[in-house]
Automatic annotation (TrEMBL):
Recorded GO CC terms: cytoplasm; heterotrimeric G-protein complex
Single GO biological process annotation from the record: G protein-coupled receptor signaling pathway
Binding site for GTP: 51-56, 273-279, 298-302, 367-370, 423
Protein name: Guanine nucleotide-binding protein alpha-1 subunit
GO molecular function, one term: G protein-coupled receptor binding
Keywords tagged on the record: GTP-binding, Hydrolase, Lipoprotein, Magnesium, Metal-binding, Myristate, Nucleotide-binding, Palmitate, Pheromone response, Transducer
Ligand binding (Mg(2+)): 55, 279
Species for this entry: Kluyveromyces dobzhanskii CBS 2104
Length: 451
């Protein structure tokens, strides 16, 4: 006697022993379910510098396993691409003047005093005067995230060092304006502070021509098309675009400008693959592939985004590291003193050899191979990598060189798998992503002791 707790049970629901046993069985069952789920759950982390193509790889996964993009995404990209197309043409015009490139759209006087190039000049003026934010539905384009990115990318008054961290609110503080009240005020603030005013100094020699009012979409599209196809200076400037920051898909936007001008235009798959929306933070996307669930984490790659990466390092099955190999002659958007491949080397070196990924396989995507193959014909790799042994135009030697450069960073024994990719090409990516998912699913089964 004296022992209060009895090990004997009367079998009733009120019996605390029965209740505890049931609760513990339930817990064990749940844990078992969780363990089974984890056995079939694969986690892929997409890492790499900004603009290397991570989100484009994810878009291909969506095309393969999610049946494509939503109507909302298609509308959003339509807005973003239209804005980027106008701004990219404006960038070319302004950069031509900085680089001393003569444009066919510059007005000239003949010896007899006649003005020539009037038609093309008007196209140039239309682009310089276009108010991009009036042209789009900023909310559909992504709201404050879009506006933030727009200001960082296109306002020449934003100091370069601000690009690393600035948010629209920091920019507002710098300008002594408080934009926090509501979205309408933010829009107003952007228009006032960062609208077209900054570009007006560049409208040269037009005093004797009819002033330009806000143009319609059709007029802007026509102007872009004319400048792109008729102005040799614009092409010359485009060919020197490694010397400044220009959207990687600008030529695609210009080639297709008329369709993007339509206000109700719904983007097709290729438009979305070519379009660019910078990733902020990290997105999680789940794909059901056979019995497995593949979770893909897409991380923003610009410097200011990388501090968020570490929170996702735990329990990763494999890292897909994306390198835009074509960018060997380009500088970072965040810091125009740093070569983009040099940045990728430092980044990969740190990740490959970090304690987080001691046993985690790495898959390297040498991406933008399509651009690389064209670029090596005119931009010598040796200018940026003095030890490079190949000749101008030899893309195979170029790819092998960069592949061995990246592989040499591995100071561990873990395997590294390399794929040469063109992330915008759905057919080739289907094959590559099939191989990658097979590999990581096998890897996961091995780890769980199933095979
Ligand atoms: N031609 C070509 N363009 C590519 C390729 N891969 C990506 N792009 C383009 O490069 C741009 C940037 O691609 P994203 O996928 O947004 O780059 P990201 O690595 O996600 O960039 P962050 O989100 O800033 O880290 C987009 O305009 C893509 O269409 C490629 O293989 N070839
Ligand atoms: Mg991205």
């Amino acid at each position: 006697m004296g022992c209060v707790a009895s090990t004997e049970s009367d079998g009733s629901e009120d019996d605390p022993f029965i209740r505890n046993k049931k609760a513990s069985d339930l817990l064990e069952q749940k844990l078992q379910q969780e363990r089974n789920k984890n056995k079939n759950e694969v986690k892929l982390l997409l890492l790499g510098a900004g603009e290397s193509g991570k989100s484009t790889v994810l878009k291909q996964m969506k095309l393969l396993h999610h049946g494509g993009f939503t109507h909302r995404e298609r509308m959003q990209y339509g807005q973003v691409i239209w804005a980027d197309a106008i701004e990219s043409m404006r960038t070319l015009i302004l950069q031509a003047s900085k680089l001393g490139i003569d444009l066919d759209s510059d007005l000239k006087h003949t010896p007899s005093g006649h003005l020539v190039n009037v038609g093309l000049n008007r196209c140039k003026e239309i682009i310089l005067h276009a108010n991009t934010l009036d042209q789009i539905d900023a909310r559909m384009a992504g709201g404050s995230e879009f506006l933030n990115e727009y200001v960082l990318k296109y306002n020449s008054t934003v100091p370069k060092k601000k690009r690393q961290s600035a948010s629209v609110f920091e920019l507002a503080r710098a300008a002594n304006v408080n934009p926090e009240d509501d979205a309408a005020e933010t829009d107003e603030f952007l228009q006032e502070k960062f609208g077209t005013a900054g570009y007006n100094n560049n409208t040269l020699e037009t005093s004797d021509l009819k002033p330009i009012d806000q143009s319609t979409n059709e007029e802007i599209a026509h102007a872009i098309k004319q400048l792109w196809t008729q102005d040799k200076g614009v092409r010359q400037c485009y060919n020197r675009s490694r010397e400044f920051q220009l959207e990687g898909s600008a030529s695609y936007y210009f080639d297709n400008i008329e369709k993007f001008a339509r206000v109700d235009y719904v983007c097709d798959d290729m438009d979305i693959l070519k379009g660019r929306i910078k990733t902020t933070g990290i997105t999680e996307n789940s794909f059901k592939i056979g019995p497995s669930t593949v979770k893909v984490y897409d991380a923003g790659g610009q410097r200011s985004e990388r501090r968020k990466w570490m929170h996702f390092f735990e329990g990763i099955t494999a890292v897909v590291f994306v390198i835009a190999v074509s960018e060997y002659d380009q500088m970072l958007f965040e810091d125009e003193r740093v070569n983009r491949i040099h940045e990728s080397i430092i980044l990969l070196d740190t990740l490959l050899n970090s304690r987080w990924f001691v046993n985690t396989p790495f898959i390297l995507f040498l991406n933008k191979v399509d651009i690389f193959q064209e670029k090596v014909k005119r931009s010598p790799i040796r200018t940026w990598f003095p030890n490079y042994p190949g000749k101008l135009g030899d893309s195979e030697t170029g790819l092998k060189y960069f592949e061995s450069l990246f592989l040499s960073l591995n100071r561990s024994n873990k395997p590294i798998y390399v794929h040469r990719t063109c992330a915008t090409d759905t057919q080739s990516m289907r094959f590559v992503l099939g191989a990658v998912t097979d590999l990581v699913i096998q890897q996961n089964l091995k780890k769980s002791g199933i095979i």
